[in-house]
Amino acid sequence: MIAHHTTQALRRSAPTLAGLWLGAMMIAAGQAQALPPVEVVGNAARANVPDGATLEKRLALRAPRLISFGPEDEMFIGSQAGRLYRLQPPYDRIDAEIPLSGYPHSAVVHDGYLYVATTDHLYRTAYTPGQDVTEVDFEGVADLPGGGGHASRSLSVGPDGRLYVALGLQGNCSAQRLADDVAFEDRRGGVMALDPTHETPGWTPYVSGLRNPIGMAWSPQGILYLNNNGPDHWGYEAPPELLVRAESGSFHGMPWYQWNDDEWQRDTCIDSAPPAGRDTLAPPVATFAARSAPIGLTFLPEDNPWQVDMVSAIHGSWATQASGGRATRRPPKIVGIRLDDDGRQGQMVDLVSGFQAANGERWARPAGVAYHDGALYFTADDGDTGLYRLTP
């Protein structure tokens, strides 16, 4: 685990958290430990969280998605409701609600600009903290391959100062990929990069072969990790969803190959020749159960109280087995991921669960996730929608 070497020092500096830390580390080490249920402050629900932790709803929002932080601790939240939300500490009220058409899924502040990624375009406006912004203030920076199916566009700033956008394939088996020799409208299924300082910014393929990569997170070493939602046409138990380590030019198989039963398997749904052989494909860092729909992803600092390297928001499947009823749904939850020393293998740790009852009914579905000043924030875009905070 990347953060393991600080554990003893942190225990000494925060003895009141010793029980929580020990419990989290036991879970991370593979020892079973149930998360105790607690009342969720701010609504009538109950959830399961690490011992001693508190979960609270900070405020209601309409269909919120990914979270980012800007200068002076401003929080930005994209949405499916045609709104970009801005919040100021302590993040319990809306400071600004910016109407934006075209599904403003995510936003970042970078080098004096506020950037927003919609399904078809990347927009920006010159920005200083607290500034009043309206839709007319935004200018187009670059077009994005649009069209139906997997309309979210996740945006991130890389350690090299470039902007990175993740976009999914149109369907399960779409013959689309990110490459210079592919028509622009079919450059989907991976991550593209753009240098905003160029006079005419243009997208460059970065990684490809992913059906629907939504969560993006950069490690302290500058490596990009991605959550990937797998296809639906193999049924309800396969293939699993993936967490992948993505490096410049890497290809991750889809739709030609699926990771299943600990190996890459050829997917016969597409008969065109794959751009690379299966022997070139790296295994995923970790897997989630099929139909889990992992979305938000973030790295945590080494001194985080749960002693995990990453956190992911599991949205939970939308589909159900015809004969099994609603209880066959994959449950939404928040999970931690503990990485090995080289960051190529990961182990899951449940951090928040209990969003779904035994009959399949849900009170919330997590989407975006972020960590700030010792607290873990996540959005729920379905059920009791809004912003939530987990504190130790």
Give an overview of the whole structure.
Residues 1-34 form the signal peptide. InterPro entries: 6-blade_b-propeller_TolB-like, Glc/Sorbosone_DH. This is Glucose/sorbosone dehydrogenase. Keywords: Signal. Residues 147-310 form the Glucose/Sorbosone dehydrogenase domain. There is one protein chain. This protein is globular. It has helices at 7-13, 18-28, and strands spanning 37-39, 46-48, 54-59, 64-69, 75-79, 83-87, 96-99, 106-110, 113-117, 121-126, 139-143, 154-157, 163-167, 190-194, 203-208, 213-218, 224-228, 241-246, 257-260, 263-266, 286-288, 294-299, 310-314, 333-339, 346-352, 364-372, 375-383, 386-391. It has one domain: TolB, C-terminal domain (Neuraminidase, 6 Propeller). 47% of the residues are buried. The protein is built from 2 helices and 28 strands. The chain has 392 residues and is mostly beta strands. It starts with 6 loop residues before the first helix and ends with a strand. The strands form 8 sheets. It has a 4-stranded antiparallel sheet, with no helix packed on it.
